[in-house]
TrEMBL record:
It comes from Fistulifera solaris. GO terms for cellular component: cytoplasm; nucleolus. One of its GO terms (biological process) is RNA processing. InterPro entries: A_deamin. One of its GO terms (molecular function) is double-stranded RNA adenosine deaminase activity. This is A to I editase domain-containing protein. Signal peptide: none annotated. Residues 1-15 have a biased composition (Basic and acidic residues). SMART domains: ADEAMc (SM00552). Residues 72-456 form the A to I editase domain. Residues 1-20 are annotated as: Disordered. Pfam families: A_deamin (PF02137).
Length: 539
């Protein structure tokens, strides 16, 4: 009877996106360009069917011409299930073939890495584009040739971002995870800055957030929840061991580590066993510390690449986003605890060895010396979905917007004909990926508006390895490397998690040392779900 009464309760109707105040004219320019680009390159059949989705872009701004250009875009809301992730991680030959996480921010970053890889390879092969006609065809410049840190007899080019170019990111909704956890802050409405011109943005101001509510989850890492996963006995034992290793007895009883009722919708804690992939808030925090280019590309870059600003549409709380995406890495209470963690480390703990015993990374870096980039967080009044309305569900607050489609899209600037799945559109390359399986789809499926096969666990006739998958990006890096310093070691590289990690240690030494320092010492990031550690504990 009660269920019937609940089902008969009237549902209110509201607009999918509330009216908002933007931070400045530049934020609205970024957002409008991104929304227009989404409408221009993503098939109309998808846009008409899926009114509510998430879009993320990387936008380049030229300080002389004042021009803005989208250079990378991601569209999507899905990710692989725990069972598929475990299968891929344990694979002896296919690790990295699937795109594990098809959330928009993750795909935009993968598309950016593809775009940068193409630029570097073209420059090495002397296929330099006409930057006078289009300055965004090459946003990197060859700063010098440098000796390889591991072998001074070899030389390779080193790149940096053109000083006339700045990068800016956009998300149609606040990143999932800590960025939408508003219980620890007093939210303030955005105030429009009419003193800023159309090519100006505020200076970054990020107040210290001490982290006095660590036990309640204020700074906690979160995972994307797989509601269909049933945790096994082996997983329970592994999680308990990991919990006892990383946390003190007092910390193990904290609500942030033993309860999940405080987590934002669709997320869970790192010790719940209900997820494997970190939320976009966690990933963007890591990228803002180490760089958006990743480990392998860092070996060709003079400095890390991090966007100057982030413009957010729905669900924005600027103070919450600042905490989630950068400030929780340097909160005074966190750094104090991190120093204690460092004091407990032994020399053995500070060595991360690859299968090649001659190579190791020592965590001699002090994490206080690796400060995160603090992007300017901006709001926008531009809506992705101008006309959409949704029915509110009184029984499930916060779950009004539904993301039904598993189709996801990645787009990057420049023609890329390396895969049959790529469609050339608007001077760039578009690929459709089934977020439920991680495979790229035949363009004909997209043209016909069809969904991918959600039950497909193996590559089929119409599914392919994506051009932005770990495998494809790794192979692209090897192509660049072979054109500068050929190595027989990488000719027949096995596609396993261990081999990928070994390769990152070999080529991305500085990046990996910094990452290892954070994972070993940092009070928050040391609980990160590292795949090679989880694999060793389960298999």
């Amino acid at each position: 009877m009660q269920d019937k009464e609940q089902s008969d309760r009237p549902r209110a109707v509201r607009h999918a996106e509330k009216r908002r105040t933007s931070t400045c004219a530049f934020a609205d320019r970024i957002a409008q360009l991104s929304v227009d680009h989404y409408h221009k390159v993503v098939p109309e059949s998808f846009r008409n069917e899926q009114k509510q989705t998430c879009v993320a872009t990387i936008v380049a701004h030229h300080c002389l011409t004042k021009e803005l250009r989208v250079i990378a875009m991601g569209v999507g809301t899905k990710f692989l299930s725990n069972s598929l992730l475990a299968e891929e991680t344990a694979s002896p030959s296919q690790y990295g073939d699937r795109v594990r996480d098809c959330h928009a921010e993750v795909l935009a970053r993968r598309a950016l890495r593809r775009y940068l890889s193409i630029q570097i390879l073209n420059d090495i092969k002397s296929k330099k584009p006409d930057t006078q006609r289009d300055p965004f065809r090459m946003i990197l410049e060859n700063s010098q040739s440098t000796g390889d840190a591991d072998n001074d007899t070899t030389k390779r080019p080193l790149y940096k971002l053109n000083p006339q170019i700045t990068l800016h990111s956009y998300s149609s909704s606040a990143p999932c995870g800590n960025a939408v956890l508003k219980r620890f802050v007093t939210c303030r409405k955005e105030v429009y800055r009419d003193d800023l011109g159309p090519d100006e943005w505020p200076t970054p101001y990020h107040e210290d957030i001490p982290g006095h509510a660590l036990s309640q989850g204020e700074f906690s890492l979160l995972l994307k929840e797989d509601k269909g996963h049933r945790i096994t006995t082996e997983e329970k034992i592994s999680l308990q061991k990991r919990k006892m290793t990383l946390l003190s007895p007092k910390q193990q009883s904290w609500p942030s580590n033993c309860q999940t009722n405080w987590c934002p919708a669709g997320t869970t804690t790192v010790f719940s066993g209900k997820g494997s992939l970190h939320t976009c808030s966690d990933k963007m925090l890591r990228w803002n510390i180490l760089g958006w280019q990743g480990s392998l590309l860092s070996s060709f870059l003079e400095e890390s690449i991090v966007p100057e600003t982030l413009t957010v549409g729905r669900k924005l709380s600027a103070i919450t986003c600042r905490r989630a995406l950068c400030c929780r890495a340097v909160g005074s209470n966190v750094l104090k605890r991190s120093k204690c963690n460092r004091a407990k480390q032994t020399r053995k703990d500070n060595l991360f060895e690859s299968s090649d015993s001659s190579f190791c990374v020592q965590v001699g870096t002090i994490i206080e010396d690796i400060l995160p980039k603090h992007p300017v967080i901006m709001g926008t009044s531009v809506h992705l979905d101008e006309e959409g309305v949704v029915e509110t569900d009184p029984d499930n607050p916060g779950q009004d917007v539904r993301f039904h489609s598993s189709l996801s899209f990645a787009w990057w600037l420049g023609t890329d004909e390396s895969s049959p799945t790529i469609i050339t559109i608007d001077n760039g390359s578009l690929e459709c990926i089934d977020g439920a399986t991680g495979w790229a789809l035949d363009p004909s499926i997209v043209d016909n508006g069809q969904q991918g096969n959600r039950n497909c666990c193996q590559k089929g006739r119409n599914t392919f390895v994506s051009s932005v998958s770990t495998t494809a990006l790794m192979n692209f890096f090897l192509s660049i490397h072979q054109n500068t310093t050929p190595s027989k070691e990488d000719d027949d590289l096995e596609r396993t998690l261990g081999k990928l990690r070994e390769m990152k240690l070999r080529y991305g030494g500085v990046y990996e040392r910094r990452k290892a320092a954070y994972f070993a010492e940092h009070e928050v990031l040391r609980t990160w779900n590292r795949r090679h550690i989880l694999q060793n504990s389960l298999y």
